[in-house]
């Protein structure tokens, strides 16, 4: 069966904007964050405290958080790769962070300039210090179903990386299909592999990019396997500058349209959200890749 309610983890301001050619002005980002919360999203990944040369689109993280008016019931997690990033996030008053690991050697090197093992050594002090400060820590695992350089990825390797992040103290794992190659059978197999290894399904979230048009089907499959937290991006923005052939995330509008139809609660107002993505598309100078946004506002 399907869950009665799904928590949407909105990643547009981070995964979406990190991949745009243009650097969006900080006041536009702040309006985006406000409009997403107005539309009923309660978890909005705001930005990344990564090296500004690696992701110049998000180099304004300090300024963004300084301008953000906190709202009751809304959390604004940020990406943090290392202790330098954690120092910056703590100084900005952040309460929720996400570390991001790779399931493959090649992407660990391309995205983090580390080996599989040395990425773990980088994350360990981040998680222990963050937990000691009372922060909530999410762990992403990228390339869970395929890697542009290495091809298919063994579910056992993904489970091993994910278990290490949970053992470090992450409260949740987000399983990333960074390049959008998974199909429903692969999704079921990986969720089952985690449960077989003793990970409660309540600790899992899914993060699908829509490169091959499978993101929504894959999400529904994950929900049928007990997952209740889903990552998506308003208007379908997104991608990873360090992963070849990564396109946008599952569009939040496409997800909400589907879940509304299935009677699964999200708390999101689809009209307000589509207005927001149509507005953002004008700011970015290109139409939203979301089918639902185009159908409603095209
Ligand atoms: P590095 O070059 O190995 O860094 O990069 P380093 O540790 O050798 O440090 C070099 C210099 O950078 C030092 O300065 C550090 O202080 C500075 P120096 O002493 O030479 O003057 N530095 C920093 N400055 C500001 N903030 C920091 C920071 N760290 C070091 N945080 C590093 C390693 C991890 C920093 C780099 O590789 C990086 O920033 N990578 C981030 C890449 C990224 O953001 N990718 C996109 C997000 S992941 C994604 O999109 C996938 C996801 O959506 C899930 C999915 O779809 O699968 C999450
Ligand atoms: Mg992503």
Automatic annotation (TrEMBL):
GO MF, one example: lyase activity
Transferase in keyword set: no
SUPFAM superfamilies, alphabetized: Aldolase
Family annotation (Pfam families): HMGL-like
TM region positions: none
Residues of the Pyruvate carboxyltransferase domain: 6-274
Statement: the UniProt record of this protein carries the keyword Metal-binding: yes
Keyword line: Lyase, Metal-binding
Family: Belongs to the HMG-CoA lyase family.
Name of the protein: Hydroxymethylglutaryl-CoA lyase
Organism: Actinophytocola glycyrrhizae
């Amino acid at each position: 069966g399907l869950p009665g309610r799904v928590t949407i983890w909105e990643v547009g301001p981070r995964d979406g904007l990190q991949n745009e050619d243009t650097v969006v002005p900080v006041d536009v980002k702040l309006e985006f964050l406000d409009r997403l919360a107005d539309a009923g999203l309660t978890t909005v990944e705001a930005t990344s405290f990564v090296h500004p040369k690696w992701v110049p689109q998000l180099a304004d993280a300090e300024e963004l958080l300084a301008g953000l008016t906190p709202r009751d019931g809304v959390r604004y997690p940020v990406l943090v790769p290392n202790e330098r990033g954690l120092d910056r996030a703590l100084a900005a008053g952040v309460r929720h962070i996400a570390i991001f690991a790779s399931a493959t050697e090649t992407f660990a090197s391309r995205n983090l300039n580390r080996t599989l093992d040395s990425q773990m050594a980088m994350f360990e002090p981040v998680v222990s210090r963050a937990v000691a400060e009372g922060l909530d820590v999410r762990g992403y695992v990228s390339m869970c179903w395929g890697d542009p350089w290495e091809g298919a990825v063994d579910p056992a390797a993904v489970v091993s990386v994910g278990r290490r992040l949970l053992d470090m103290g992450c409260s949740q794992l987000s399983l990333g299909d960074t390049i959008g190659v998974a199909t429903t059978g692969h999704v079921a197999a990986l969720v089952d592999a985690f449960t077989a290894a003793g990970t409660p399904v309540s600790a899992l979230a899914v993060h699908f990019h829509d490169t091959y048009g499978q993101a929504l089907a894959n999400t529904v499959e994950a929900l049928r396997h007990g997952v209740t937290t889903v990552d998506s991006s308003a208007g379908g923005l997104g991608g990873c500058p360090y992963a070849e052939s990564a396109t946008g995330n599952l569009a939040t509008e496409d997800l909400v349209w589907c879940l509304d139809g299935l009677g699964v609660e999200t708390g999101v107002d689809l009209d307000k959200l589509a207005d927001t993505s149509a507005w953002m598309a004008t700011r970015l100078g290109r139409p939203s890749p979301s089918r639902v946004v185009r159908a409603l506002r095209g």
